[in-house]
Design a protein that fits this description.
Elements: H1 2-18, E1 32-35, H2 37-40, H3 56-68, H4 71-74, E2 78-80, H5 106-116, E3 120-126, H6 142-152, E4 156-160, H7 169-183, E5 188-191, H8 193-196, H9 204-208, E6 213-215, H10 224-236, H11 238-241, E7 250-252, H12 265-277, E8 282-284, H13 293-299, H14 302-308, E9 317-322, E10 325-332, E11 339-346, E12 354-359, E13 371-375, E14 381-385, E15 390-395, E16 400-407
Helix pairs in contact: 3-5, 6-7, 12-13, 12-14
Length: 409
């Protein structure tokens, strides 16, 4: 009897330990960086396509660009490897290791190189039996893999959920967090747990206790339709998603595809603005070696980044949806006496700028003395608006007007 009581007490203590809140001190604002997947996928052909294949050369070149072209100073400081970096088998001791042809110097050397640039290195694992690309999974090796990546000097882990039972994720992701914490190395933890569980009927309190950020919707593709599908999903489910976001724990609508092939200039501004309103992690997936000046300007906009990185960490909401126009607002700077970021998003398909008017009280502004308004991308100053003065904007097709509103002192 006494043995049973002791066993139960130990089990309860272990459960409490495993259920403790994530406290690695990371991602107090939405993390920023570069991630390989959307642009480079699982291209392992380094014979015919050495410039674009998943290799140490690719990640070293992207690290050079982040460090030398002004990205790092703006906060883009993670370089993230995605799937297809591994050998197809573990070694005789069960350890993961990188493909020796494409990563001849190993991940530790790559991490040292990235760190020498003042950057951080992220890597990819999968909770299941295999990664989505068919490489070794981690379900039977969580502790070993946590110790391995910590020993390499990894700073961020994206853990996918292919080839796994969703029911196992409620213990698997917390266990991985526990094992990483035990290494003593702070590793930002990006989880795919909610995405495989449907995104809505999940316990975000539990997920926030173990993950710094999490995917909860399908992968972004290089298309405007994909971007708007994600925006729609976030708007339609905002009552569940908004309370889950806070410093250290973020909803992740997936990568920025600004600078890739499909988005127009207006659509690129729209994605950047919306990800800032959503307090989303800002991980570019593009080719920084050949990015256009227009895409660079959008991604480097200091005012948009400042809104994204606001220390309150409050995710924005869709407050109006009418006539093909959506209005999204985000409280920033001071919850008791807030400034606001506002995005007016044109979803119409009639092919011309749309004239849209409203008063600030219609979107929840309350300060009687009014607000000073300016446009974030153009820098245009609109001046002082009280709650009843009509604001009229012209919003380009598939584009945005992004307003920064400061209460009058």
């Amino acid at each position: 009897m006494w043995k049973a009581v002791v066993t139960a007490a130990v089990a309860f203590a272990l459960l409490l330990c495993r259920s403790s809140s994530l406290d690695n001190g990371l991602a107090r604002t939405p993390p920023m960086g570069w991630l390989a997947w959307e642009r480079f996928r699982c291209n392992v052909d380094c014979v015919d396509d050495p410039y674009n294949c998943i290799s140490e050369r690719l990640f070293m070149q992207m690290a050079d660009r982040l460090a030398e072209d002004g990205w790092k100073e703006l906060g883009y400081n993670y370089i993230n490897i995605d799937d297809c970096w591994m050998s197809m088998d573990r070694d005789e001791q069960g350890n993961l290791y990188a493909n020796k042809t494409r990563f001849p110097n190993g991940i530790k050397k790559l991490a040292d190189y990235v760190h020498s640039k003042g950057l951080k290195l992220g890597i990819y694992l999968d909770f299941g039996t295999h990664t989505c690309g068919g490489y070794p999974g981690s379900i039977k090796y969580l502790q070993k893999d946590a110790e391995t990546i910590a020993g390499w000097g990894i700073d961020m882990l994206k853990m996918d959920g292919c080839y796994a039972n969703v029911s196992d994720m409620s213990w698997g992701y917390p266990d991985m967090e526990m094992y990483m914490n035990k290494t003593g190395r702070p590793i930002l933890f990006s989880c795919s747990w909610p995405a495989y569980a449907g995104g809505i009927k999940v316990n975000y309190t539990a997920i926030g206790n173990h993950c710094n950020m999490w995917r909860n919707y399908g992968d972004i593709q290089d298309s405007w339709d994909s971007v708007t599908n994600i925006i729609d999903w976030y708007g339609n489910n905002q009552d569940i998603l908004v309370p889950a976001a806070a410093p250290g724990q973020w909803n992740d609508p997936d990568m920025l595809i600004v600078g890739d092939y499909s988005l127009s200039y207006e659509e690129s501004k729209a994605q950047m603005a919306m990800w800032a309103i959503l307090a989303a992690p800002l991980f570019m997936s593009n080719d920084l070696r050949s990015i256009s000046p227009e895409a660079r300007t959008i991604l480097m906009n200091k005012e948009v980044i400042r809104i994204s990185q606001d220390s309150l960490g409050m995710q924005g909401r869709r407050v109006i949806k009418e006539h093909g126009i959506e209005v999204w607002t985000r409280v920033i700077e001071n919850k008791a006496f807030p400034s606001y970021a506002v995005v007016f998003l044109n979803r119409r398909d009639d092919g011309m700028p749309y004239k849209y008017s409203l008063t600030l009280d219609k979107i929840g502004f309350e300060y009687d003395m009014g607000y000073e308004l300016s446009e974030v991308f153009s820098g245009q100053h609109y001046g002082h608006y009280d709650l009843k003065r009509v604001l009229t904007l012209h919003i380009n097709p598939s584009g945005v007007v992004m307003i920064y509103a400061v209460p009058m002192s």
